[in-house]
Fold:
Amino acid sequence: MSSGLGSETFLEVEAKFAVDDSVAAPDLSALSGVDRLGHTAHHSLSAIYYDTADLRLTRAKITLRRRSGGNDDGWHLKLPAAHGRLELHAPLEDLSTPPAQLLSAVRAIVRREPLAPIAQIDNNRAETQLLGADGGVVAEFCDDRVTAWSLLPGGQQTSWREWEVELGPALAESLDGGALIHEATTVLINAGARKSASASKLATALGTSVNNAPVPPAVTPLSSDSPAKAVVDSLRAQRDKLVEWDPRVRNDEWDSVHQMRVATRELRSLMETFEGILAGPQLSHLESELKELASLLGTARDAEVVEERFVGLLESDDTGMVDPDADEHIRGDMRREYERAHRRIVRTLDSDRYLQLLDDIDALLANPPLSPELGGEPVPGAGAPDALPGSDAAEFDAESPSAAADFELPEVEAEADESEGAEPEEILYDHLATGYKKLMKRQKKAEKYYQDTSLPLHDREEYVHDVRKAAKKLRYSANAAKDSGLNAGKLSKACKQLQEVLGDFQDAVTSRDRIQQIAGEARTRGEDTFAYGMLFQREISRGNEALKGYPDAISEVKKAFKKVKPVKSGKKK
Structure:
């Protein structure tokens, strides 16, 4: 399988077993799905493993090696996956420098730290193929006699023997593959093997020498009595998601831009909402950086969403009124816009500024700047640098009074309670209440101005969009607060539903505006624009339809907030 990162990608699903030198390998031809044993090949393998000085890859259960002597000479990168490990291969063109296409997959982890050899593992391997009735490779059985050297301070030479059963590509993600691994495990243990106590050859090779390596910055443990614990835990979770989605965005995997944007916006929202629990100038700097990164991701995401909507509109059209030229322009323009935006994203992810942002987030988690009221001291911060490259995303700007919806936004009264006290849950509740009041304030503005046709359509729609943004912030805050003991789970769910209702409306607005822009370009080329007007009107209808769910959604938010109560004096009500 070819990866968008310019490398070959495989899913590795295997089981490892420790075995003494004197134990004979059993016959595996009777395993379910195995018709016969293939040829046994012998290989002398030698691999050098690379990592940073503080073992960032190893700690993340990632291995990067340069191996020679077998059927797959080259650079290999192994990443954790839901089932087994994802293995990326690249040619052995440079013996000392890992290839850029593999480093791209771990750039958010390695960042600017240099890579150096940490271990050498030599392996005399006897490899037997287990074949199915059709002659295809069901699995491979490897009998490995290993000699390894840890290159870390205090490292030693180690030798051992192990067996491996690795599924073939056809079974790697199937239930039959899991059954075969289970059956093989029974046979091998009965033959005298033991389940390996080590997850990998590298872990065995390094042994206790890993304790001599520096430790990267870690999240500072906070007392459960501190309201900052829930906030920092949530920040860490979103940091992890940001790092997780980084290589997937680079690889242009489906929905990756959206998920990375969500993590970026949630990080920023948490810092803004819980300012007062955390304090210090570095918060403002991080919020500014995250805002610009989210904006850059948003340009690509908007193009992605609009393209999906355009395709849906075109494929559901049964009028025959959309001519081929209009169809090509509508589909192609957004695809090209997304591709341009994605290239800007990748350039940004390779920039020093982005890597510094990741370092700064780690520094905040390692030493959370607690407010003085919570026993902390504000940390001086630096001024914000220039804008991220490519963050000058164009805004859609179309006005059409005839496009105004005939939907009336209901009036909603704010019912946030004032809370006092210094218990962690009470402090978090106060921040939730502030976010709820902001949501209700924006709701009132939207209800007041949405039907005011003296205002430009986009101004009125922006008030509705502001409601969605406030709901999103409140949802993120509720997610953080619910882990502290507050009954905020239903509030988070209700805010998500409101966010989705208004998100569907906003998607229709964005799509409608883009259609109008493309129609204008077509008009200047002298093309017929009737089809564009028809699609434009359909998006108006879809937007109005989305808003029908608004009254129930805002009502559920009100009900859910009433159930969020602070815990007085450390006792739950």
Q: What stands out?
A: The first strand starts at residue 8 and ends at 12. The longest helix spans residues 281-316. The chain is about 50% helix and 15% strand.
